[in-house]
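Lab notebook, design round three. We kept the backbone fixed and only want residue identities now. Task for the bench partner: fill in a sequence for the structure below.
Input structure tokens:
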């Protein structure tokens, strides 16, 4: 029977072995509950049934890299798949908030002239290959995401590391670490303050430094980063960029050690990505021995129909009228922003051309038909077209600063035609890419094409199973339809760091290659600003700037359909970048 699930909360403290502060039981847009008060429908009828030893997890990511800090890893949903394989000092909770993971270690801000964070790894922490976790891992993460290491490129220096984002990390002046130690002191640059420091060194993003050191033939990685030897750092960066790319049927498990309750066992197109219990894990053991991840590259509909999926986390409407018989599930508004990320080259090299598309996109109609499938929200998340790229609808500032979007609420083909004329462009063709199949996104492109045809814009559906957001920067498409930072699957967080980075000059997830010095300066100031009046003024200026420059077109809060099989315990929805898999080590399915 299909029943509703609106329970969203944190893992119970007993089963996690970590603590976190109290949370509100009600957030606008989603009903929130702890695991102890899950809906009766979710837990009923389990008495006397046997636990299933393997659970299928169907999620619309496109698994491509083990390295969640890389551009490829971030865009291919590493956070939704590997958060309980590669742990961090914090993880993204089900409301999108950073939550401390004391199994990994502790992190605390300490007084000082400059912002300073002290990190202490758990003394029992060890990778699944037997190597102890150490502050070397933090030094590697900082080196890769600081942006300070560059190499010669065709147009001048380019980053060595293909990092998804340098936000926060680039403001760190130094990471004090004695190689092999469990302690690190992170000190930010004088005058810099990063309020969202709990998003740094996060789950799925701290990579095993000893693997890199071995591959790059570096006896002491901490010393290598400290001295900054160009040749050595290029070897380190080369492996960091490509050494963790995942190809079905071609895994080298020696470079995939785990620091969490699960480890990777195998990956193939027919059998999915198989995660099994990590016997070296020092925290509470995973409750289910085996999780099989079925991603976007498999036939999710078939796996659901065949009964291979016990947990389903997909974009609302993406599989059409998928049957949820045998599941407890519901579609809810997510923390991610469904939007069109536009190129700033080719047909969209002119701001007027980008505005022309925005003027003919029927944002209100798209929301009415596709933006709230199966739910009605009177306020906050999912209550109407999304009028900001970086703010979510339950932000205290949202209504006050989103007025610049009014002109683009409904399609105005006459104004779009005038903008095209100003751009000096006639009858342009706009190719919109996304990871197919995706019925909702196909309908989105179809509605945009029909509306923009009257303005003289030919919109082409360029969705494909092998589509990747990087094709936008390569000029193979003109726009990407996806979530925050062009992610095809789970996206978004309460801090919005991915959405901010997606518009910041030079960031890996800035696929449209948008660059605006004033936007960057505002983002930098907002990162540490505490005065609410100043924040309001900066956000207003930012919104006006983005609606004028039009690097992307926000549509609505991405709806997520999250469902747990009948007999599932501890299944807690998370319509964020971490997905339903944020607490997979607590899952128990009884049949």
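Proposed sequence:
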């Amino acid at each position: 029977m299909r029943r509703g699930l609106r329970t969203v909360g944190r893992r119970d403290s007993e089963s996690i072995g970590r603590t976190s502060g109290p949370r509100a039981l009600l957030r606008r847009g989603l009903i929130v509950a702890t695991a102890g008060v899950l809906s009766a429908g979710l837990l009923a009828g389990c008495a006397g049934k046997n636990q299933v030893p393997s659970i299928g997890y169907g999620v619309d990511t496109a698994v491509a890299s083990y390295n969640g800090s890389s551009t490829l890893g971030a865009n291919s949903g590493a956070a939704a798949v590997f958060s309980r394989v590669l742990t961090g000092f914090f993880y993204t909770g089900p409301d999108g908030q950073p939550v401390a993971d004391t199994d990994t270690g502790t992190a605390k801000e300490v007084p000082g002239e400059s912002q300073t964070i002290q990190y202490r790894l758990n003394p029992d922490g060890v990778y699944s290959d037997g190597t102890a976790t150490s502050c070397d891992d933090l030094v590697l993460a900082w080196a890769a995401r600081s942006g300070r290491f560059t190499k010669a490129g065709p147009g001048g220096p380019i980053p060595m590391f293909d990092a998804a984002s340098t936000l926060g990390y680039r403001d760190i002046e130094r990471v004090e670490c004695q190689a092999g130690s469990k302690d690190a002191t992170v000190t930010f640059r004088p005058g810099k303050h990063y309020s969202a420091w709990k998003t740094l060194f996060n789950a799925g993003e701290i990579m095993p430094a000893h693997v890199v050191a071995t591959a790059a033939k570096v006896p002491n990685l901490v010393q290598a980063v400290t001295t900054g030897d160009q040749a050595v750092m290029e070897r380190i960066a080369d492996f960091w960029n490509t050494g963790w790319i995942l190809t079905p049927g071609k895994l080298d498990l020696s470079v995939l050690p785990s620091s969490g309750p699960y480890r990777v066992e195998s990956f193939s197109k027919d059998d999915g990505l198989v995660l099994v219990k990590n016997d070296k894990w020092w925290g509470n053991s995973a409750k289910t021995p085996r999780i099989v991840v079925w991603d976007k590259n498999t036939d999710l509909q078939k796996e659901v129909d065949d009964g291979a999926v016990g947990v389903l986390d997909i974009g609302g409407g993406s599989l059409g009228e998928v049957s949820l018989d045998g599941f407890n599930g519901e579609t809810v508004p997510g923390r991610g922003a469904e939007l069109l990320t536009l190129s700033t080259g080719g047909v969209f090299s002119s701001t007027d051309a980008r505005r022309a598309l925005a003027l003919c996109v029927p944002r209100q109609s798209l929301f009415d038909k596709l933006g709230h499938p199966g739910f009605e929200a009177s306020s906050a998340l999912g209550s109407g077209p999304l009028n900001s790229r970086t703010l979510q609808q339950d932000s205290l500032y949202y209504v006050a600063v989103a007025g610049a979007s009014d002109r683009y609420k409904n399609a105005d083909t006459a104004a779009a035609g005038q903008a095209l004329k100003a751009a000096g462009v006639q009858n342009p063709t706009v190719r919109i890419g996304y990871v197919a199949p995706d019925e909702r996104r196909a309908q989105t492109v179809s509605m945009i094409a029909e509306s923009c045809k009257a303005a003289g814009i030919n919109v082409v559906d360029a969705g494909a199973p092998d589509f990747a957001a990087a094709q936008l920067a390569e000029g193979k498409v003109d726009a990407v339809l996806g979530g925050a930072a062009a992610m095809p699957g789970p996206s978004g967080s309460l801090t919005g760091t991915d959405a901010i980075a997606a518009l910041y000059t030079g960031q890996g997830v800035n696929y449209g290659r948008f660059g605006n010095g004033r936007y960057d300066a505002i983002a930098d100031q907002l990162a540490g600003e505490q005065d609410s009046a100043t924040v309001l003024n900066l956000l207003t200026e930012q919104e006006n700037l983005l609606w004028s420059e039009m690097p992307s077109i926000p549509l609505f809060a991405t709806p997520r359909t999250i469902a747990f099989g009948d007999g599932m315990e501890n299944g807690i929805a998370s319509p964020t970048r971490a997905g339903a898999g944020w607490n997979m080590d607590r899952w128990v399915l009884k049949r």
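Keep this in mind before ordering anything: Confidence is low (pLDDT under 50) at residues 1-46.
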